[in-house]
Amino acid sequence: MEATMGQSHGRESIISGPSPFDTLPVDCISSIISFTSPRDACNAASVSKTLESAAKSDSLWEKFLPLEYTSLIPQYPRVFSSKKELYFALCDDPLLIEDGKKSFRLEKASGKRCIMISPKEVSITWGSSPEHWQWISIPESRFEKIAELIDVCWFEIRGGMHTRYLSPGTRYSVYIVFKTKNGCPGLGDLPVDAGVGLVGQESPQKLIYFVGPRGRDRRRDVTRPEARDDGWMEAELGQFYNDSCCDDISLSVGKTNTPDWKSGLIIQGFEFRPVKTR
């Protein structure tokens, strides 16, 4: 992001002549930039040497860090030379919180919070029965134990989270993060019911695929899964607006109206992250 933040519409920013900001004290410039965003701060650094110095200051990047950042530092095996370096570490290296039940990181461009909850944090029908679900450990997962679907007829997951963990005044998307085995028999190519919404209110419903049929059999009204940079797949369950961080959010995903036995789904967790703005 640091490289792209120094660009404008795909071209390098080209500034001719001194910037009007160069006459201001560096601390004053840092204070002004702190009212923008991390992306804007990185872009400002390309304008002039004075702005570059202001855009690197610890006082600026501390404004972009979460209030509890000091409690997160001990989890890193290294010492940070600046608050900016710490900020990008919180973006690139998700940290486990809440006794390993949640994963925390920051969105690079905005500094808004992204939270993934472990499958241990949700209710999985038959999840405690080894003949139906197994709890496994794999190196590429953030969590110590994740859920693998072995064989069920009734596939249903319900859960949620309090919005205090998220950034206020932000619209969020919720994703199920998963992998499939052998095409996810009995489930992969079928539209699966999904929903996200405020507790106490009716949740908007949608349909998702875990794999999806090819060609004409693929329905346009069903959300397709997408590949993530970390090697997992994800499908969006829904969106909600986090107004004041004082609500509970519910999520659901399931397929209960077919008699087929279902298997081959590995769930890492459910991720809450800000909706991308275009």
Automatic annotation (TrEMBL):
Q: SMART domains under this entry?
A: FBOX
InterPro entries associated with the record: F-box-like_dom_sf (IPR036047), F-box_dom (IPR001810), PP2-like (IPR025886)
Listed name of the protein: (rape) hypothetical protein
Q: Which organism is it from?
A: Brassica napus
* Protein origin, superkingdom: Eukaryota
First and last residue of the signal peptide? none
Domain F-box, by residue range, is: 18-64
